[in-house]
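User: Small ask, check this?
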Amino acid sequence: MASPSRLSTTRAAVAHLKRADPVMRDVVARVGPCRLEVRGEGTHFDALARAILYQQLSGKAAATIHGRVRDRFGGRDPSPAELLQCPDEDLRACGVSRQKLGYLRDLAAHAADGRLPLDDVHALDDEAVVAALTAVKGVGRWTEQMFLMFRLGRPDVLPELDLGVQKGVQLAYGLRTLPTPKRLQAIGARWAPYRSVGSWYMWRVLEL
């Protein structure tokens, strides 16, 4: 359940979007209340490892692999040290590709030796979080933005490279083609400082 402060922020965000953008006002009326939720279970390391496993896979396939990895560690997510100590063949047997295995080990190494300050990442501003995550192999702009939105609960993130958001904008704004990242940023500028909520509504447009 969302905290009272988060509910208050969400209400303020929706009110702003409706005032700032007539198209968004119509979208909110059709979709209904915002149900954007932050994933608070587990650790920040767990969230990033999960994001790497889910890259470029269907949700079902990724969930299967993620479940096998958890089973390998007794039904829970491994710590950075445990992941580093786990033999390659064990993780490969779970369905982890060689490329993602390298990404996971690099993430674990950065977390284990302190180069990635996961214990303090919530205190960093968005740009500092992105700078810290960029040093990890396999963690690109999309993963960084998903971490900011759904793990840290940052309110003003616009994932301009996300195909779902692009398609939602195309439908909502009646565009003939998918918007380029630059055009999407221009459209989303009026949603600031609540672009995360605006993006959530664009995903929901695809479900209407």
The CA atoms of residues 122 and 152 lie 6 Å apart. DSSP finds twelve helices and no strands in the chain. The first helix runs from residue 4 to 20.
